[in-house]
Amino acid sequence: MKILLEQIGRRFNREWIFKHVDYTFESGKSYAILGINGSGKSTLLQVISGALTSSIGNITYLLENKQIDVEEVYKHFSLAAPYLDLIEEFTLLETLDFHFNFKKRINNLNNNELVDLLDMQKSKNKQLKYFSSGMKQRVKLLLAFCSDTPLLLLDEPTANLDEQGINWYLDLVKSFGGNNRLVIVCSNQAHEYSFCDEQILVADYK
Ligand SMILES: Nc1ncnc2c1ncn2[C@@H]1O[C@H](COP(=O)(O)OP(=O)(O)OP(=O)(O)O)[C@@H](O)[C@H]1O
């Protein structure tokens, strides 16, 4: 997958969050979008994903050298982000079944293998509303990493995770972040993005 940003800008009302962003994202590489709180990382990620339109500029999406419409991009990415909610009434197993109705499982991993990856066999029939914030974050990350999509978007991936959780995330990166995937991480914490090949500073586009 290739995503080309040409002179992209986004404003809310009269305030420009970023402008003149020229950048190319390519499969097989990982990118970190960096900046302080409120600098516009999530906004840029949402523009890249097509969830938010840019105020100016063009974005082109190429999948195996064929252009795809912005309306179709959602089929090709998986996202873990603080603003993405899980359905709290579902149990863990129901969550996996529901999610993988829409996205293909990576390596055909079955529910039992996914629950093992989460180390949550004891909680598989528990509703997510009874999960701790760290457990929910692990579920979000697992759903994103284990969906077979060429584009993986991660916004604050280790929010709510303790040291063990951070190491678990880094294992996911090693296991499922490669294989010619395009990975984009929004962060302001080095341990979340130190594996990335390139860094984009939102402050450079003010
Ligand atoms: N829907 C919106 N309407 C108006 N302003 C918005 C909207 N969404 C975001 N903003 C503003 O855009 C700016 C960038 O927000 P954004 O969430 O992209 O920052 P961020 O770098 O991801 O922050 P954080 O590190 O805290 O997650 C902020 O000033 C925010 O208030």
As a percent range, the share of strand residues is: 25-35%
**Topology as H/E string?**
EEEHEEEHHHEHEHE
Q: Which strand order spans the largest sheet, edge to edge or round the barrel?
A: 6-7-8-3-9
When the domains are counted, the total is 1
**Radius of gyration, CA atoms, in whole angstroms:** 17 Å
Domain ABC transporter: 3-203
Pfam families: ABC_tran (PF00005)
Keywords: ATP-binding, Nucleotide-binding, Transport
Protein name: ABC transporter ATP-binding protein
Description:
- Residues 3-203 form the ABC transporter domain.
- GO terms for molecular function: ATP binding; ATP hydrolysis activity.
- Keywords: ATP-binding, Nucleotide-binding, Transport.
- This is ABC transporter ATP-binding protein.
- The chain is of the alpha/beta class and 206 residues long.
- It has one domain: Rossmann fold.
- It is 29% helix and 28% strand.
- The chain has helices at residues 41-49, 92-102, 111-118, 133-145, 163-176, 190-193; strands spanning 2-12, 15-26, 30-34, 56-63, 66-68, 77-80, 151-155, 182-187, 198-201.
- The strands form 2 sheets. A 5-stranded parallel sheet has the order 6-7-8-3-9, with helices on both faces.
- Helix 4 (133-145) packs parallel to helix 5.
- The longest helix has 14 residues, at 163-176.
- The chain is globular.
- The model has no long low-confidence stretch (mean pLDDT 97).
- The site of adenosine-5'-triphosphate has 11 residues, from helix 1.
- Adenosine-5'-triphosphate binds next to helix 1.
